[in-house]
């Protein structure tokens, strides 16, 4: 009995001290401490091209063993000048990743598939901006280990300058992800053409988003022009409230 406990403890110590930096160790869905943001269909609906706001801010990355990644982030940035004016950003991206021999991890998105929803309540007067998004992400290194406090697998990513990203914890293995292929293969590579609706073979992005929101009755979003759509004040106050709850939850943790 005592012996097996020692075996478990030493196994934990070994796992803890030997951080792993292989594709095999990366495999799975990872989520930040709030444990509310996950990649997959709960964050981005590719049929309606709809980003779905999680209840709390956080970030999530998923990796397959064969070189595909997916990213879901919901971040709220405070405004130093006016704390009541936070900026909220939701981002979805997926594509391929590559681990170099020096340990650098590069995420290369499928450019036509990325989406961003940017909300600046004090600047945009309640009109959130929905747009295409593509950003190659380079992490100088990463390490997977067992977090002795949470008793969970932990993924530590380091930004290009070496600064650590907030730690991520394993949520699903195998990962919860959308199909690892381009989801909008008919879309033109030129985002501006799509946004202005000049392509008559495909409905404009804004139309698709508006339809998705109306279908779900999440808001009574009203299309105002080609570029955007209006979120009601109710939606905004709700968002700001959730942002507040999220920040408190983070601080209290
Ligand atoms: C990563 O990129 C390097 C250089 O481009 C390439 O040699 C290697 O095969 C790639 N690895 C994977 C897993 O795709
Ligand atoms: C690691 O290798 C990649 C590609 O091989 C390169 O772009 C990057 O600068 C290297 N990083 C470091 C820290 O040397
Ligand atoms: C990718 O992002 C760049 C910079 O924002 C933009 O110029 C380009 O059109 C985007 N590409 C696609 C396919 O969306």
From TrEMBL:
Gene Ontology molecular functions: unfolded protein binding
Subcellular locations according to the entry: Endoplasmic reticulum membrane
Positions of the UniProt region annotated as Disordered: 180-210
Pfam families in alphabetical order: Rot1
GO annotations of cellular component type: endoplasmic reticulum membrane
Transmembrane stretches, start-end: 234-252
Signal peptide annotation: 1-19
Entries under InterPro entries matching the protein: Rot1 (IPR019623)
Topology class, membrane: Single-pass type I membrane protein
Biased composition (Polar residues): 181-207
GO biological process: 'de novo' protein folding; budding cell apical bud growth
Keywords for the protein's UniProt record, in alphabetical order: Endoplasmic reticulum, Membrane, Signal, Transmembrane, Transmembrane helix
Keyword Cell cycle (UniProt): no
Protein purpose: Required for normal levels of the cell wall 1,6-beta-glucan. Involved in a protein folding machinery chaperoning proteins acting in various physiological processes including cell wall synthesis and lysis of autophagic bodies.
Family: Belongs to the ROT1 family.
Protein name, entry field: Protein ROT1
Organism whose genome encodes this protein: Maudiozyma humilis
Highest classification ranks of the organism: Eukaryota, Fungi, Dikarya, Ascomycota, Saccharomycotina
């Amino acid at each position: 009995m005592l012996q097996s406990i020692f075996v478990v403890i030493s196994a934990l110590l070994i796992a803890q001290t030997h951080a792993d930096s292989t594709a095999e160790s990366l495999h799975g869905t990872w989520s930040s401490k709030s444990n509310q943001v996950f990649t997959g269909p709960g964050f981005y609906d590719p049929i309606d091209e709809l980003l779905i706001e999680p209840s709390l801010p956080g970030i999530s990355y998923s990796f397959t063993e064969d070189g595909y990644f997916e990213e879901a982030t919901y971040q709220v940035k405070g405004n130093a000048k006016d704390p009541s004016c936070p900026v909220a950003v939701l981002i979805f991206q997926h594509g391929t990743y590559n681990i170099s021999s020096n340990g650098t991890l590069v995420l290369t998105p499928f450019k036509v598939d990325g989406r961003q929803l940017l909300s600046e309540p004090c600047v945009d007067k309640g009109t959130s901006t929905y747009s295409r998004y593509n950003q190659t992400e380079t992490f100088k290194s990463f390490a997977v280990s067992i977090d002795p406090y949470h008793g969970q697998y932990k993924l530590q990513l380091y930004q290009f300058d070496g600064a650590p990203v907030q730690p991520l914890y394993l949520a699903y293995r195998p990962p919860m992800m959308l199909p690892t292929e381009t989801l909008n293969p008919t879309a033109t590579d030129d985002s501006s053409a799509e946004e202005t609706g000049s392509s008559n073979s495909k409905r404009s992005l804004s139309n698709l988003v508006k339809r998705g929101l109306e279908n779900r009755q999440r808001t009574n979003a009203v299309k105002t022009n080609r570029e955007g759509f209006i979120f009601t004040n109710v939606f905004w106050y709700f968002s700001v409230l959730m942002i507040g709850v999220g920040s408190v939850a983070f601080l209290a943790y």
